[in-house]
């Protein structure tokens, strides 16, 4: 009997959801501390909001990534970002948590 194929995108567990929420809070606090002026209109401005090399518990393409690298994955359709919460959601939509 053949095994059922496993889905590559499993439903997130409560732990993963909690981790996502913690990362969102971290991003929002970081942006508040930097006194960011909204809206953020493009990915170049977004990249400048995060210090280069700022790590996060996120993987893209199987490797740990940095906040500023995630900005490169956004397209012009993702902008403008109107507030810190929207930035956090957009950034985290580009990674899979580990």
What does this structure look like?
42% of the residues lie in helices and 10% in strands. With 98 residues, it is mostly helical. The chain has one domain (15-92). Strands 1-2 form a two-stranded antiparallel ribbon.
Give the termini distance in whole angstroms. 32 Å
Shape summary: globular
How many separate structural domains?
A: 1
Strand order, sheet with most strands? 1-2
Structural class: mainly alpha
Number of helices: 4
How would you summarize this macromolecular structure in one to three sentences?
This protein has 4 helices and 2 strands; from the N terminus they run H-H-E-E-H-H.
Record the SSE blueprint.
Blueprint: H1 14-33, H2 43-49, E1 55-60, E2 63-66, H3 67-71, H4 84-92
Antiparallel strand pairs: 1-2
Helix pairs in contact: 1-4
List keywords for this structure.
single chain; 98 residues; mainly alpha; two-stranded antiparallel sheet
């Amino acid at each position: 009997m053949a095994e059922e194929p496993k889905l590559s995108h499993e439903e997130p567990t409560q732990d993963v959801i909690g981790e996502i929420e913690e990362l969102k809070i971290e991003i929002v606090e970081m942006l508040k501390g930097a006194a960011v002026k909204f809206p953020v209109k493009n990915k170049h401005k977004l990249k400048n909001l995060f210090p280069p090399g700022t790590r996060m518990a996120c993987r893209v393409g199987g490797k740990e990534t940095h906040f500023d690298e995630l900005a490169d994955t956004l397209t012009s359709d993702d902008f403008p970002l109107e507030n810190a919460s929207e930035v956090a959601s957009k950034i985290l939509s580009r990674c899979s948590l580990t």
